[in-house]
Design brief:
heterodimer, A: 114 residues, mainly beta, seven-stranded mixed sheet, four-stranded antiparallel sheet, 50% strand, B: 114 residues, six-stranded mixed sheet, five-stranded antiparallel sheet, 11 strands, 54% strand, globular
Chain lengths: 114, 114
């Protein structure tokens, strides 16, 4: 299965600032997925990122707030913009090179906005 | 569209007792189904998956699940609970074709009593 390196692992940020989260995969994948896990909650898909095209956002998530880059088949970034305390969550990236083997997740970025 | 419902946000069992975590799915096409475990302050680990092969699926750490199409269920079981099984468990579903996103249930927190 694929191995994902996600960073930073955690950060404490001031409201109104932005944070960019990076995910590097050890193999080429068509799609990368970005999830948010709010405190004590399940995972919610933010967007699906394809290389060479704009990301597809889920209902309730917009590009201005969560811009995504996908410059090649092994790398993606998610930016959390103009942060507020409500953005405090764990953000995870995920890939599924072959769904018969399941989805692999990064270790997550624990974001606290103060 | 796919969705999953996990019955019981919190399940508590005694060490050595049977573990049963319930998951029901809704899907317009034959689904792929997954169980993930999340230990405190850690990432997601795949326990097992159903991808249209055998309906009884065995996973890691002694867990197994049975896909029952007639009941639209994919319940997770373990014959004898161990203290180390205490964690959050997530059931998830995706479609085999088309949009490959993974949709999660609400999660079930498993507590093991000595």
């Amino acid at each position: 299965s694929a191995v994902i390196s996600q960073k930073p692992s955690r950060d404490i940020c001031q409201r109104g600032t932005s944070l960019t989260i990076q995910c590097q995969v050890d193999s080429q994948v068509t799609m990368m997925f970005w999830y948010r896990q709010q405190p004590g909650q399940s995972l919610t898909l933010i967007a699906t990122a394809n290389q060479g095209s704009e990301a597809t956002y889920e209902s309730g998530f917009v590009i201005d707030k969560f811009p995504i880059s996908r410059p090649n088949l092994t790398f993606s970034t998610l930016t959390v913009s103009n942060m507020s305390p409500e953005d405090s969550s764990i953000y995870l990236c995920s890939v599924a090179p072959d769904r018969n083997y399941g989805y692999t997740f990064g270790s997550g970025t624990r974001l606290t906005v103060v | 569209a796919q969705s999953v419902t996990q019955l019981g946000s919190h399940v508590s069992v005694s060490e050595g007792a049977l573990v049963l975590l319930r998951c029901n799915y809704s899907s317009s096409v034959p689904p792929y189904l997954f169980w993930y475990v999340q230990y405190p302050n850690q990432g997601l680990q795949l326990l097992l998956k159903y991808t249209s092969a055998a309906t009884l699926v065995k996973g890691i750490n002694g867990f197994e699940a049975e896909f029952k199409k007639s009941e639209t269920s994919f319940h997770l079981t373990k014959p004898s609970a161990h203290m180390s099984d205490a964690a959050e468990y997530f059931c998830a579903v995706s479609a085999p074709q088309g949009a490959q996103k993974l949709v999660f249930g609400q999660g079930t927190r498993l507590t093991i009593n000595p």
